[in-house]
Design brief:
binds alpha-D-glucose-1-phosphate-6-vanadate; globular; 18 helices; Alpha-D-Glucose-1,6-Bisphosphate, Chain A, domain 3; binds cobalt (II) ion; 27 strands; seven-stranded antiparallel β-sheet; 3 domains; alpha/beta; seven-stranded mixed β-sheet
Length: about 550
């Protein structure tokens, strides 16, 4: 039986960089989750009888929302849902399932790297048929619909047993609970030389992986341990927990500090990696050397041809605007297209679908390729391992070779989290007001060459996205970017991105913050961060 339940709109259901993210108690308000899911369905058409993929990162409230989403899919006329066992699907695995099964789309439940628990974060994102996050055209329609929604449709049946794989029928729909790992692991085997990686590991190359108590634990056990022979004791925090053990499942130098310390210690393994809550980010640390995500993108792109899936070379490379220009130098050398998009994976979809790029990346520890339409943490780990096995070198050797060839791009991001929203907006507005007058002026020793607010013109569908961050370029090639986060759930988060390219190998061993000191000073001089935010220092430096 299908019920039509009346509801009133909620004013705050505007999807951000990656879907709708709010605190769990917000999602728990009566009708809130239902209003958003119904707004998604009402913004789409043609899904009668079609397949919907549903899964999440296993955080608190995942199972409840999955039951609701299944019953609403039936209530709205979908013919089949595919749901990961235990309600689990990493974001890249969900993307793959959508593509492999020619599904209409998918609901990916995650707040990624944000903490989980009864008073922490939850999120819902809609992905389209190519397996990628819905483009802005659709997220705008979802928000518009959420502002006038007055009812939702839901079928009435008992909770689905999410812990047993297999198919059942309910509410006129087929419900298939599937193994969340198998298809994804098989896809990885088609891209990488598992024999070479296995032999490399068997020869003594030690790999450690921190799943941060989040979704990648089962994937890492299957792929790294079972299929590639990595030491099981070095795959740590591999049991997904609803609250991620009370930590932020954010693979950066602050929240994955233990891994960092291990990798810098005397008995460090040869290769260390971590992933985030939903498995789409990656942190790569070699013995004694941290690889910045922007560098990792460049190094993966430069060496991808060593993996079977990329043997024929790259069609192009794409990076988000705040990501460093290191990958641009690789694209230039390879003679392939380079694309610069706004922050968020949804902007890569059109380029990937059109065959205009093969590898994409973001400075926030996201890298991926045209194998799916999401960033993919374990994919990046496996591509690194494939490259290391093929070159029979250490991470440090590969990093130093790369810098010697292309120069080193010093890069850092300073985040000011949970600052007052009005003050953060005022800071951005004040900067914006003076953009036109900045060229030629000096900011604490650096001369501004040009400054603008980034606008993206999508070369495939012609859509235009404005206000995607403020860019300030200095004489000598350094760059500064300011933008406000679109994934936070408390106040505003100001992100300040700094980079400086250093061609001379004699200057490649500086400490990053020292190498960037002039740009950091210029940021304060231009934006008055201390005054506007009331903070003396960033919350997180990556
Ligand atoms: C952040 C990152 C962005 C990433 C997004 C989603 O967005 O900066 O690069 O695509 O998170 O990643 P923002 O708007 O807070 O800067 V995930 O791993 O949360 O799906
Ligand atoms: Co994520």
């Amino acid at each position: 039986m299908i019920k039509t339940n009346a509801i009133s709109p909620f004013p705050d259901q505007k999807p951000g960089t990656s879907g709708l993210r709010k605190k769990v108690p917000v999602f728990q308000q009566p009708g809130y989750t239902e209003a958003f899911i119904q707004s998604v369905f009402d913004s789409l058409s043609g899904f009668e009888g079609a397949t919907l993929v549903i899964g999440g990162d296993g955080r608190y409230y995942n199972r409840e929302v999955i039951q609701t989403a299944i019953r609403m899919a039936a209530g709205n006329g979908f013919g089949r849902v595919l749901v990961g066992r235990g309600g689990i699907l990493s974001t890249p695995a969900a993307s793959h399932l959508i593509r492999k099964n020619a599904a209409f789309g998918g609901l990916v439940l995650s707040a990624s790297h944000n903490p989980g628990g009864p008073s922490e974060d939850f999120g819902i994102k809609y992905n389209v048929a190519n397996g990628g996050p819905a483009p802005e055209k659709i997220t705008d329609a979802i928000f518009a619909r959420s502002q006038v929604i007055d009812r939702y449709l839901i079928a009435d049946f008992d909770a689905v047993d999410l812990d047993r794989t297999g198919a059942s029928e309910a509410g006129g729909m087929t419900i298939e609970v599937v193994d969340p790992v198998a298809d994804y692991a098989d896809l990885m085997e088609t891209l990488f030389d598992f024999d070479a990686i296995r032999a490399f590991i068997a020869g003594g190359f030690r790999v450690t992986f921190d799943a941060m108590h989040a979704v990648t634990g089962p994937y890492a056990r299957e792929i790294l341990v079972r299929r590639l022979g990595a030491d099981p004791d070095l795959v740590i925090n591999a049991a997904p927990l609803e609250d991620f053990g009370g930590h932020h499942p954010d693979p950066n130098l602050v929240h994955a500090k233990a891994l960092y310390d291990t990798m810098m210690g005397p008995d460090a393994p040869d290769f260390g990696a971590a992933s985030d809550g939903d498995g789409d980010r990656n942190l790569i640390i070699g013995k004694g050397v941290f690889v910045t995500p922007s560098d990792s993108l460049a190094m993966l792109a430069a060496n991808a041809h060593l993996a079977p899936g990329y043997r024929d070379g790259l069609k192009g490379i794409a990076r988000s605007m705040p990501t460093s220009g290191a990958a641009d130098r690789v694209a230039e050398k390879l003679g392939v297209e380079m694309h610069e998009t706004p922050t968020g994976w949804k902007f890569f979809g059109n380029l990937l679908d059109a065959g205009r790029c093969t590898i994409c990346g973001e400075e926030s520890a996201g890298t991926g390729s045209d194998h799916v339409r999401e960033k993919d943490g374990l994919w990046a780990v496996l591509l690194w391992l494939n490259i290391l096995a093929a070159r029979q070198q250490s991470v440090l050797e590969i990093v130093e070779d790369h810098w010697a060839e292309y120069g080193r791009t010093y890069y850092s991001r300073h985040d000011y989290e949970a600052v007052d929203t009005d003050r953060a907006n005022q800071l951005m507005n004040a900067l914006e007001q003076k953009l036109d007058q900045l060229a030629g002026t000096e900011a604490d020793g650096l001369t501004v060459e040009r400054a603008d607010s980034f606008t993206y013109h999508d070369p495939i569908d012609g859509s235009v996205s404005r206000n995607q961050g403020i860019r300030i370029f200095f004489d000598g090639g350094s760059r500064l970017v300011f933008r406000l986060s679109g994934t936070g759930t408390s106040g505003a988060t100001l992100r300040v991105y700094m980079e400086r390219h250093e061609p001379d190998p004699a200057h490649h061993s500086q400490e990053t913050q020292d190498a960037l000191a002039p740009v950091i000073l210029a940021a304060e001089a231009l934006a008055g961060i201390r005054e506007w935010t009331g903070r003396d220092a960033p919350t997180v430096i990556t």
